[in-house]
Every structure is written in structure tokens, then in C-alpha cells.
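Figure 2 data, in text form.
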Amino acid sequence: LTQGIMCAVIVAAAATLKSDYSASKLTSIGEISDAFTAEIGVTAGRTVFGLGIMGAAMVAMVVLSCAAAWGLGEVAGYPKSLDMSIHDAPSFYAALGGCVLMANVAVLVCSDSDLVSISIGVTVIDALLLLPVLGFLFLLARGALPEDVRLKGAKMWVYGGIFAMTVGLAWGCAVLSLANSA
């Protein structure tokens, strides 16, 4: 749901902001919110924009913190899984908490314009990494799953098409984002 709202906010913002605002005028989240809400109304605009930003932040916090804690666990060799209790994987949960804490400190220390640049950069990187992630998931679903749930036939083509459209849209948005921020 949060990713859907985030995508809707990005598409709506791209469609409405291009006409009246240049990328150089929008240097903070507040300015982006003001520009966005001018098009669809203050209450609706701030609600949708806030949900989009909150959803993106929540997903990023969970994914990036878990990935960092997992990666540290791979290197250090400690038990790592969200399925394990804090007593069974204390190092994993300490690393996870440390990542969340460092992200919060970065938000408190950075200026608004730095946060906008960081947000755009992370979103572009996220879009570019979507191809290998979905590609490997697709390959795993075609070959590594048990035979009765493996992707094959029409279902494989439908999911493959959805994955391809998703990656194409994400890469297109990343290119437009980079072109508009330059």
C-alpha cells in the first residue's frame, strides 16, 4: 500500500510540478509539498504527499536497515533472521537497531536540501537495482521453487511482463529524475 501511494505521489508530482516549478526552486520537502498541494488542494495534497513520504521512508528504513544488518551478519558470521528472537540473534538485532539509530541521526544533522538530494539519490539507485532484484526473483520462481508452485506457462509470461513493465517504468522515472535535477 505504501509503495502504491509513493508511486502515485511521484507520478502526480511529475505531472503537476513540471509546469510551474523548476527543479532549482524546490530545495526542501516543505517547498515540494507546497508546490504539490497548490495543484490538488491543501488538505488532500498534504495528506497524500505525507503518506507518500512516510511510506517511502518506512519501506526504506526497514529494507536498508535489515539489508545492512544481514550483510554484517554474513561477514561476521552471527545468526541473522527476523524469524529469530532477540535472544537467539542479539548481534543481528543490535546491528539493525544501530542502522536505524544512525539513519535518525543523519536526518537530524542534515539540512532540508541535503535530505532532498539524498532522497532523490536513494530513489534513483533503488530504481536501477530493481532489474537485478526482480530478475533474480523471477529466475528463482522459475527454477528453485517446488514444482507445484513454480512459475510456468501463462502465469510465467504474465509475471514476466509485469516485472518488465515495472522495471521499465522505474528506469524511465529514474532517467527523468536525473535529467530534471541536472
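Caption note: The longest helix spans residues 42-76.
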